């Protein structure tokens, strides 16, 4: 059944396949290796701005929240609310998050029937003042560690102020 010629063909096919895999690996390595280059130093071709540095600079150098809030544009805040619509509503019904109509100056964790995190329930003696909302919207996880809200926050102070100004009109 297996003669010498068949065995030689099988061995040749196996060796040829290994050779193709080795040459393919070498070619891919040569094409996609970023190390080396000119003089062994690689340079970053471009950077992606995540806004992380901008947020710290804005907080350190920019105007205070009260100044930004005084000149806030409620119409622009309605556009910012588009980021919140996935979880929050302003028609008095709860979504994934509690409804936000009347939230400005409302006591924290006060929407009946909504399951707030323990952290926000512990803050229920405080109100959602514009300053508190600003701090929460900047970084919810930092403001209320353990909050159920998974939103990363709004890094721009003008966006936060505009949103809070718009929410203040939603009663």
Give a quick precis of the structure.
The chain is mainly α. It has eight helices and no strands. The protein has two domains: 1-28; 72-169, Cytochrome c-like domain (Cytochrome Bc1 Complex, Chain D, domain 2, Orthogonal Bundle), CATH 1.10.760.
If you had to describe this structure to a student in words, what would you say it looks like?
Helix 4 (74-80) crosses helix 8 and helix 6 (130-138) crosses helix 8 (157-169). The chain is built from 8 helices and no strands. With 171 residues, it is mostly helical. The chain folds into 2 domains: 1-28; 72-169, Cytochrome c-like domain (Cytochrome Bc1 Complex, Chain D, domain 2, Orthogonal Bundle), CATH 1.10.760.10.
Note the topology.
Layout: H1 4-32, H2 52-61, H3 65-70, H4 74-80, H5 118-122, H6 130-138, H7 140-143, H8 157-169
Helix pairs in contact: 4-8, 6-8
Question: Which key phrases capture this entry?
Answer:
171 residues; Cytochrome Bc1 Complex, Chain D, domain 2; 8 helices
Oligomer description? single chain
Helix content: 40-55%
Anisotropy-based shape? elongated
Radius of gyration: 29 Å
Figure out the total of helices.
Answer: 8
Largest sheet: none
CATH superfamily of the largest domain: Cytochrome c-like domain
CATH topology of the largest domain: Cytochrome Bc1 Complex, Chain D, domain 2
Portion of residues in beta strands equals under 5%
Order of helices and strands: HHHHHHHH
Residue-averaged pLDDT = 85
- Number of distinct beta strands: 0
| Low-pLDDT residue intervals, each spanning 5 or more residues | none
Domain count: the total is 2
How far do the termini sit from each other?
Answer: 89 Å
Q: What would you call the structural class? A: mainly alpha
- Label the CATH architecture of the largest domain: Orthogonal Bundle
Reading off the top of the CATH hierarchy, the class of the largest domain is best stated as Mainly Alpha
């Amino acid at each position: 059944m297996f003669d010498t010629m068949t065995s030689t063909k099988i061995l040749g096919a196996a060796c040829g396949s290994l050779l193709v895999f080795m040459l393919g690996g070498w070619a891919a390595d040569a094409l996609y290796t970023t190390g080396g280059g000119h003089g062994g130093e690689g340079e970053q071709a471009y950077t992606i701005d995540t806004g992380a540095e901008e947020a710290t600079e804005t907080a350190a150098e920019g105007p205070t929240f009260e100044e930004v809030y005084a000149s806030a544009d409620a119409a622009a805040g309605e556009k910012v609310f588009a980021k919140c619509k996935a979880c929050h509503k302003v028609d008095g019904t709860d979504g994934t998050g509690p409804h936000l109509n009347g939230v400005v100056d409302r006591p924290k964790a006060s929407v009946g029937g909504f399951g707030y995190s323990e952290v926000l329930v512990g803050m229920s003696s405080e109100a959602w003042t514009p300053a508190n909302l600003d701090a929460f919207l900047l970084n919810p996880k930092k403001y209320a560690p353990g909050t159920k809200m998974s939103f990363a926050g709004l890094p721009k102070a003008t966006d936060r102020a505009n949103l809070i100004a718009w929410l203040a009109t939603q009663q």
